[in-house]
Amino acid sequence: MSFTELPHTADVKIRACAPTLDALFSDALDALMQVMYGKDRKGRVSKEIDVESSDNEALLADFLSEILFISEVDRLVFSRADIRIAGGKLHAVLEGEPFDPSRHAGGSEVKGISYSGMSVTRDTNGYMLDIIFDV
After folding, report:
1. 49 or 116, higher pLDDT
2. Is the pLDDT of residue 27 over 80?
3. Are 63 and 52 in contact (CB under 8 A)?
């Protein structure tokens, strides 16, 4: 896991770095869940999702938006994900647990994933992501 929170005037800005695109998306999921629910998250429930988009930024936004939806509707808090990305398609096996207000209520409500300022770049060291969570 390699992400840091960067200063932002109104929302939460995250920078993540990872050796592979799969790992970068996994770190983005971890960052989102940590902002929303804190670090005390376990994996007792498994859920699979598939997402398809035109480019890496759209794929990431669609993936995290789907996570927000599932988290809200199914009241699940995810601790990790096994992600596979190929040809604009993402398959993820998510591990998590039901929301527990005594352990998960300390975070910030994330209303959406912003395309503004989002970037997924690659260099010789791997991938880097800047993303803003609308709170």
Report:
1. 49
2. yes
3. no
Q: What residues have CB less than 8 Å from 103, skipping those under 6 apart?
A: 37, 38, 40
Highest CATH level, class, for 3-134:
alpha beta
- Which amino acid makes up residue 22? D
The alpha-helical segments, DSSP class H, found in the chain are: 21-37, 56-74, 101-104
- pLDDT tens string 79-108: 999 999 999 999 999 999 999 998 898 788
d(CA 28, CA 51): 15
Helix (H, G, I), strand (E, B) or coil at 30: helix
Give me the percent of the chain exceeding a pLDDT of 70: 98
CB neighbour class for 27 (10 Å; exposed up to 12, middle 13-18, buried from 19): buried
**How do the domains of the chain map onto residue ranges?**
3-134
Q: Based on the number of CB atoms within 10 Å of its own CB, is 123 exposed (0-12), middle (13-18) or buried (19 or more)?
A: exposed
